[in-house]
């Protein structure tokens, strides 16, 4: 069972995962989040980037917005999976120990964080 998001860190990233069949839905979700929430919306990547095994869009927010953002994403994600993690400065820990999910969990490619 994927770990559900908990507010434990000062800052967060939420990565909305999607694919070719759901790109329009994901783009609309991220644009709506940018209008309605206190988040910084990143680029919509129509290819895997970094450790992410799926196409994705990053939403950045802080602990003060955590409950509002997570509640909104959970009720609006419409079947899309969302990877949420704390931002602590330790990329490996952020993507493993601090990994939380709305929806299904995916295996990340962590090789870039292991030196």
Describe the structure.
The chain is an alpha+beta fold and 115 residues long. The chain is 25% helix and 27% strand. The radius of gyration is 13 Å and the shape is globular. The mean pLDDT is 95.
Number of helices: 3
Helix content: 25-40%
The span between the termini is 29 Å
Overall mean pLDDT stands at: 95
The geometry reads as globular
| Biggest sheet, spatial arrangement of strands | 2-3-1-4-5
Write down how many β-strands occur, each being a DSSP E stretch of 2 or more residues: 5
- Spans of at least 5 consecutive residues whose pLDDT stays below 50 are none
Order of helices and strands: EHEEHEHE
Helix and strand content put the structural class at: alpha+beta
Largest sheet report: 5 strands, antiparallel
Oligomer: single chain
Question: Which band does the percent of strand residues land in?
Answer: 25-35%
C-alpha-based Rg, rounded = 13 Å
Descriptors for this entry?
globular; 115 residues; 5-stranded antiparallel β-sheet; 3 helices; alpha+beta; 27% strand; 5 strands
What is shown here, in short?
Helices cover 25% and strands 27% of the residues. The protein is an alpha+beta fold and 115 residues long. It is globular, with a radius of gyration of 13 Å.
Topology summary:
Blueprint: E1 11-18, H1 23-36, E2 40-45, E3 55-62, H2 66-76, E4 82-86, H3 91-94, E5 99-102
Antiparallel strand pairs: 1-3, 1-4, 2-3, 4-5
């Amino acid at each position: 069972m994927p770990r559900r998001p908990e507010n434990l860190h000062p800052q967060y990233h939420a990565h909305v995962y999607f694919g070719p069949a759901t790109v329009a839905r994901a783009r609309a979700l991220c644009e709506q989040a940018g209008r309605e929430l206190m988040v910084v919306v990143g680029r919509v990547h129509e290819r895997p980037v970094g450790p992410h095994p799926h196409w994705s869009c990053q939403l950045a927010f802080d602990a003060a917005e955590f409950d509002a953002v997570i509640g909104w994403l959970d009720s609006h994600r419409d079947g899309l999976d969302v990877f949420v993690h704390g931002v602590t400065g330790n990329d490996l820990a952020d993507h493993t120990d601090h990994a939380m999910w709305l929806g299904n969990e995916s295996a990340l490619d962590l090789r870039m964080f292991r030196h």
